[in-house]
Design goal:
This protein is an alpha/beta fold. It folds into three domains: about 45 residues, 434 Repressor (Amino-terminal Domain); about 130 residues, Response regulator (Rossmann fold, 3-Layer(aba) Sandwich), CATH 3.40.50.2300; about 150 residues, Rossmann fold. Helix content is about 40%, strand content about 15%. It has 13 helices and twelve strands. The protein has a six-stranded parallel β-sheet, sandwiched between helices. It has a four-stranded parallel β-sheet with strand order 7-6-8-9, sandwiched between helices. Strands 10-12 form a two-stranded antiparallel sheet. Helix 8 packs parallel to helix 9. The longest helix has 16 residues. It is elongated, with a radius of gyration of 26 Å.
Length: about 350
Amino acid sequence: MSKGDKKKDVTIHDLAQELKISPSTVSRALRGHSSIGEKTKKAVRELAKKRGYRPNAIASSLRTNQSNTFGIMVSWINRTFISSLIAGIEKAAREAGNRVIITQSHDIAELEKENLQALYDSRISALIVSLAMETRDYSHFSLFSKNGIPVVFVDRFPNKKDIHKVHINNFNAAFEATEHLIHQGCSRLAHFGGARHQAIYEDRRSGYIAALKKNNIDVDEKLILQGNSLSAEEGLMLAEQALALAPPPDAIFCANDTAAVSAIRYAKSKGIAIPEQLAIIGFNNDPICEIIDPPLSSIHHPAAEMGEAAVKQALAILAGKIETESARSVTLETHVVIRASSDKLGSLAKP
């Protein structure tokens, strides 16, 4: 075989010809069918292994209309939260006898649509998706629902009824984060928010505002700085805007950890003491929270558990076990993780 030639794949027909049995007998033997004797099954399996036979999953799915493959659509697989989410999905799917195909949208709505079409063409049996940041129209998901393919949204989801979703209570989490800062003696609290058309960021903004009102602190719109992706670069820009205010805030609640880390770095570059002059808390509890100096307070966001719950919900839909409205929405618990960046009262140092 020359260098440029491609080795021909071994087929069921090749195995059948060599064993002098029918292709259908080989197929049933490989699937362990009860109609085939153990001697024949063993002979087929041994030859298949010897010849390097690989089953054609796509051809099989065309015959059965069932691929036992879950499609995963996320924004960026290199984000800590997303990679943990995928790990949870893959673990639960594998334990249930399913494979996964992973695609990423890069937070671009059009790429999300293209990748969803590719997943559909791969005949996936269920779809688990966290929306692209740009996505405002959800009509492209109807391709799955109208063809009986379950769609489970996780973390980022459409702000509409009649969807299946796995999430946390972002309103309550934001409320607790903001109230933690207030209990530390902060009274001029800024908020760095993400894209407001995404339900999770709108809920975090609403939780922040509700905590201020409950504690009789006026809501100052100048202290609500609106971002989009809350990238590191955007976090620096928002921190510069916030600390240029007169008077500046004495606390910042960021809707993710990336922007919060940028806020710490910018504040330190300006000689602002954290948390003494500026207390900061993020959201997600990414590993970077424990690396930055001072360590960043955050909200625990159970990514892997959310992935596992999404698979369980998809399997329940496939089995016809989702019967109530409450079963459509799975809400996982979360909590504030206090570290030095927001500990103005020094409670962490106390025995």
